[in-house]
Amino acid sequence: MAGAPTIFRICVAVLAAGSASLFALQSSPTVSAERVAFDAWVDGQAKSALDTRRARVAALKTRENIEARQQEVRAGIADMLGVLPGSNGPLDAIVTRTTPRDGYRIEHLVFQSLPGFKVTALVYVPDGPGPFPAVLGTAGHANEGKASPTYQNVWVSLARRGFVVLAYDPFGQGERVEYLDPVKGGSRVGIGTREHSMTGQQLLLSGRTLGAYMVQDMRRALDYLESRTDVDRTRLAVAGNSGGGTQAALLGAVEPRLAAVVISCYMTSWADMWNVPGPQDAEQILPGFVGRGFDFADFAVAAAPRGVLVSSAIKDFFPIAGSRAASEELAPVFAALEAPDRLARVENDATHGWSQPLREGAYRALGTWLGRPGLHPTELPVVAEADAALRVTPTGQLATSLGTRTVRAINADHARALASSRAPVTEAKLRVLAGLSTAATEPRVVLRAGNPWSPAGERLLLEVEPGVRVQARLRRPASAAVSFTLLADERGATSRTELIERLVSEGQTLLAIDVRGTGDLAPAAGVSGYSGAYQFAARAWLLGTSVVAWQTHDLLHGLAVLRVEAGAAAARGPSVRAQGQTVPAALLAAQFDRPAALTLEDGLVSYLDFASADTHDGLTLAVLPGVLQTTDLPELMARVAPVPVRLLSPRTAAGAAITATTLPAHLGTPVPANVTITH
Fold first, then answer.
1. DSSP code per residue over 404-420
2. What burial class does residue 616 get, using C-beta atoms within 10 Å of its C-beta: 0-12 exposed, 13-18 middle, 19+ buried?
3. Which of 588, 626, 584, 619 is nearest to 601 (CA)?
4. What pLDDT, in 10s, does the model give residues 4-63?
5. Does residue 85 or residue 502 have the better pLDDT?
6. Which CATH superfamily is domain 415-678 in?
7. 134 vs 129: CA distance, rounded Å
8. Phi then psi dihedrals of residue 75, to 5 deg
9. Top-confidence residue, 379 or 15
10. How far is it, in rounded angstroms, from Cα 296 to Cα 290?
11. Percentage, residues of the chain above pLDDT 70
């Protein structure tokens, strides 16, 4: 990288070669062999996809094949994001007030990203005539959003160096709290990552992601910058840290107007990230991202040959080894595109955060790439302004001032539009949704121990994937069985002894199966502030599947085993009883292997109801990405007719009871003739 400043040299001390070891699992006396095998199976899928990708990228030697890869990456990321259709509607931009400062001024701005969906922002404008290069500043997960003191250092320092800066509030932060508590103020669910996780799971149901709405906000911010006469529209950049680094990476991959991208405290590799700290905020989860052969470095591949600064903290929870490996991988790509000086790297020996050395690296990179070289990189002191002094709205919140729509309200409308327009589902589409082949399910019992007529029952291990075994418990009545039932439960079916014994006393033979996500294969404790259920499900989403798909597969194996156990004695075939988050999988499994009856306890009745809810609780494992583009639970209930479907104590997404009176509203359709409700 001849001629580049020293800070831009890529010095990689720790490379990707050691990354694969992070997938290795150590057996523990407290962890079952089945759990170790399952975790290794999940990790192995990620490792296989990442290894294949790494080999493909290493083989990119010519401009032609690199540009082909870029097209693949850009299209893939846009597809996985669920990027919203382009909007060229009115911005309705309003500067609510202007604050003069020494050498620059701050314009307090609000504009529309979508009709009725407003964005609060601060525009830092240098003194002088311009036109100036402009930087879109993306805040990380600070409660104050754009007004965070750390980020003010960047916005002010760039303005002092002759850049226009538009710093905006990501929704869920700053003046854009979407779950505002009208009495206490603040967020009802938690500002930042908690709001994002709440809405993000609902977005997945309709085939979109949180990142898609962030990209929409950022694109409209660029539209606004381009509308200004004091901005040089050929010199636009995006710069952000942490969650803002994620936003910068996403925008850089899909937005051709940018000349430069600064990604701080985000770039790493999934090989290093997969287990610890694991999946993070909702905008960082693109369904299928790992399974389809993508990694963090691909954001920069898509942006090349425009300027990309990889800015990393050595002690970050985004592993530094992955960041260095990404830079090493990217160097020959930029070189082949004849732009080696457009890839830069800066590190600081610190924990997560946009520390001053990393900020100064951004000033130097942006100065070089946006036509302001030679600027002194040292950051002068910035006195952070109080949050109230930087408000755009009178009350400090759009919700109580100018009014705005929310992402979840927009998504609810989108979900309802899907429900009213989609064609009747076919078995082929359901197989894609559940990740099933057309081959018949062959029962495979690899262990049997105990007596099915004893209270403890007979323990079975079912191999549902090569090397993946789930626990099951077979319990028979003393006399001839009058029926056969497959039992699944989000709490672990094999532990539901009281229910099992009650059903056995009624003459039923029970096969209780701990499908993946329950029992011994339930989510482990989460790390880095995220729940175990979220990180468990997010790994499945990243692989391009879901816990619901896994559970559907497991239930089909359970049904196959139970049919063998029943033999000629089961005149009607087995029934299925599912509880909680296993309910969607039971309905999906019933599409391919019709049971005699379905009992669905304490579960969802509609994904549309989930997507339209104000809040939801305890449904993360039931999230099925893209389901509402294909079907919904009421349609699946009706499709199994005349099989009776009994809804036992059904619940809303927030956990409230659904009654016979309210059931049609929550289904979103008339109650199918084969469906009854009891409590």
1. ---HHHHHHHHHHHHHH
2. buried
3. 584
4. 333 343 332 233 333 343 454 444 457 899 999 999 999 999 999 999 999 999 999 999
5. 502
6. Alpha/Beta hydrolase fold, catalytic domain (3.40.50.1820)
7. 14
8. -65, -40
9. 379
10. 10
11. 95
Which runs of consecutive H residues, i.e. helices, occur in 82-191? Answer: 149-160
Contact 46, 290 (CB under 8 A): yes
pLDDT confidence tier of residue 508, bands split at 50, 70 and 90: very high
User: Measuring CA to CA, which residue among 236, 94, 118, 226 is closest to residue 168?
Assistant: 118
Residue intervals in the chain for CATH 3.40.50.1820: 6-395, 415-678
Residue indicated by tokens 């919700």: 399
Each residue's pLDDT tens digit, 563-597 = 999 886 656 789 999 999 999 999 999 999 999 99
Mean pLDDT score of the chain, rounded to an integer?
Answer: 94
Query: Measured between alpha carbons, how far is 62 from 126 in angstroms, rounded to an integer?
Result: 42
The structural architecture, per CATH, of the domain 6-395 is: 3-Layer(aba) Sandwich (3.40)
pLDDT of residue 573: 86
**Total residues found in the chain within this entry:** 679
Report the C-alpha gap between 261 and 497 in whole angstroms: 57
| DSSP per-residue letters across 40-97 | HHHHHHHHHHHHHHHHHHHT--SHHHHHHHHHHHHHHHHHHHTPPPP--S----EEEE
Contact 244, 264 (CB under 8 A): yes
pLDDT at 479 over 80: yes
- HEC string of 205-239 equals HCCCCHHHHHHHHHHHHHHHHHHCCCEEEEEEEEE
